[in-house]
Write a structure and sequence with these properties.
It is built from 14 helices and twelve strands. With 458 residues, it is of the alpha+beta class.
Length: 458
Amino acid sequence: MIKKIQNSLGISCIIGLGGVLVFILMTITLMNISRERRILTQRAEEMSHRLGNLILTAMHYPMLTGDQEVIQVQFDGYKKMKGIEIIHLLDHEGIIRRSTDPDLVGKRSLSPYASQAMQGKYVYGIEVRERSEDMVFTKATPILNEKNCYPCHGKKRRILGALKISLDWQSTIKAINIAKNQNIVLSISGLIIMGILTAIFLLRIVILPLQRLETGMRKVSQADFSQRIISKSKDEIGRLTQIFNKMAQDLMTLMQKERKKTEELNRSLSLLSATLESTADGILAVDRQGKIVSFNHRFVQMWNIPAEILESRDDEQALRFVLEQVKSPADFLNKVKSLYGQPQLSSLDVIEFKDGRVFERYSQPQRLSDEIIGRVWSFHDVTERVAAGRKWQEQNIFLNNIIESLTHPFYVIDTNDYTVKMANTAARQKEVAENFFCYKLTHKSDRPCTGPEHICPL
């Protein structure tokens, strides 16, 4: 499964974009939740600040007159106000003197904010309500010693006490949770919608065109160059599709040209093979590495080379086999080695066999452009011609012996120019020589015989 996902560009893109979208939406959700929390905190801070100012202003006159009952009545009234959790008025020792919760009057405040306010700091924040587990937003304001307070409290103390106001934070937490849940729902809904739209977009714009390209390229790899992909887009995939179509067309054109060349080459090879097989000569072609490239059937008949040697294509094996058939194996082999060592040379010589056969051997280099790539050997059986030449020579010697044995002059005259072409010893003794004119010999004349007086017998 993992390998399939890794090998799929579409699934990888969807997962990657989905991860990006999740990250973006989570970031936005967290920012919205933080923003809601900050806004609610600022509201609580502003409310506690206004409420604190209001309470301090309301308490100012009763505190100057020492009318503590009025202050307690005010606190009882604050208890009924919505959103107020508890309000304490503390003396300089942190003892609760007035409170919206009468049970806490006379007890020491455990709030760290109250302790800080006793040091003259204006502090606020979220804490656990004293002697409870509820979360409250607390603001502690120090009550400074003023001139009007000197008659009762003297001048030594700078801080007379503190006013600690705790607002209900549970409702704020609920509002934050509601906002958080709303943001999460909106984010998940947006993620699903954007994921679907992104998947549809990728499917139509990227995945399907790439799948069509993959299918087309697979068919092209199987030599089906007729594949064409239709795409109307002008983006990178569209341009890639155009390149693929042009490539397929070029490959088809190239294949057609190569097929035509192959057919022409096959026809040429067929003609060459037919020509080689129709000739009376044995033909052998060997490359520069000593491998037999080609031969005709006549060559096999002339040399009687076994099929296993020809199948091996090893010229050395063929040479070792034919050496046993020739009269002069050393001369035969030296000539072959000499030509292999000088590939540019051509040669013509005669090979005599132990069984009386005689071959003419003609060899010339095989060239490809200006490069010599091998050597071609041609063997022509001249056994009958050599035998006929020897017989004619023997007959000619026999005839000459007969003519020479005659005691009277004998000569042969060419009727075309009246010259003596042949004369025996008896004729040469009478000063008859070859290329001597017969009319000079018989009539002592400087021109051929003419007229009734010298009728030419020829």
